[in-house]
Amino acid sequence: MKITRLFILFITLCSLTTIANAQHDVVVDEVVAVVGKNIIKLSDVENAYSSIRRQQGYTNAKENRCQILESILLNKLLVHKGEVDSVEVTDDEVEQQVQYYLKNYIRQYGSKEAMFKATGYTYEDLHDIYFRLLKDRIISQRVEGSLTDNVKITPREVAEYYNAIPKDSIPMISDEYEFAEIEIRPSITEAERERVRFELSQMRERILKGEKFSMLATLYSEDPGSAKKGGELGFFTRGEMVSEFEAAAYALKPGEVSPIIETKFGFHIIQLIERRGNSVNARHILITPKASAEDLLKVRMKLDSIATEIRLGNITFEDAAKQYSEGATKLQGGVMTNPYTGNNRFGKEMFKELYPTIPFTNMKVGDISNATVKTTDDNKEAYHIVKLTKKVEAHQANLSDDYDKIYNATLEKAKQDKIQAWAQKMIKNTYIRISDDFKDCNFQLNWTK
After folding, report:
1. Sheet containing 432-434: which strands, arranged edge to edge?
2. What is the pLDDT of residue 1?
């Protein structure tokens, strides 16, 4: 295994995951390396090793620990460079990422108390550990970016990279698909919007008269993630929530209940629980206005009619998307973008996960589906029709069909080479100490000088 930029990130994520998902062992910890003034503990190596061993079944314990230590050494070298260059990272930036992880884990375990029972770490312990790890990660990523942002590659270099791969080592690419869609949302009547406002205003009055916000949230909120926790969202910082919600939450005092506010998700009332520095913890009740069954039927019938016109050749799918679609793909003629890769290709399992109601495996290129329900980005119900525009059969990667993948691999290799060359020079002028237990490791870089 080579120590790559992606492996460095992977090791950090493994450490974060291991800390929060497994009861920590009683280990006699010790410092196994120092880079500048940054120490690396044995537990840092062991946490990452435990996680990777579970995921990938490593067997060569010594070699694997050496590889992990080298990835951490390289990360600490980047952090050291950031400290020397006074790279600025604010506590607010770090706190925002810390809260992202902690909220996810509290959601996973159900409460802070359950998380402590499962992991052996208190909320405060995890907060401090995550703050240290994530601050280092932000610094190292910024230094890495400053070193590699100007790395460019040419089409010739992409071809040379591909041609240098042994023929029997060229990876296989599974079936991939490209799609276009036309999305139409049912209209929401003003009467329905008023019904929701009235319902929330009644709940707000009940809370102001002494009923528990958390109980009403559990009973009536339509945010499934927070309703089971009495509407509690956990700590968040500015920039994490939609602007209207955030403005209302930050304007409250602890215990205070907001007026009814509207966001793209629906209507809310909010209660501030606690303010901690620039972070706040709040609970809310969400109710989303619903389209009537009649309006939903109208949308479905309209989309099926549009599909018929396209099949008859009276209008192209692209023109119909530009004319009728109400989704984010409207301006590009309905062409769908893979949210995970940023390109237009979808693997079979990924598309099934994103759009389970589309029977695309039975479609031929050019076929158009009937109208089916989809959930929009703001968690509302809509209908769409989908056209299968292209299918690329499973094949060995090649420059014609997979240029973007090969380009990204070539660019990653060029950036990795830049980091490795920089690191070897940086090591010569940096204080580095490695414990005797790891000095016989077969490192890629000359850490022991």
Report:
1. 38-41, 31-35, 432-434
2. 45
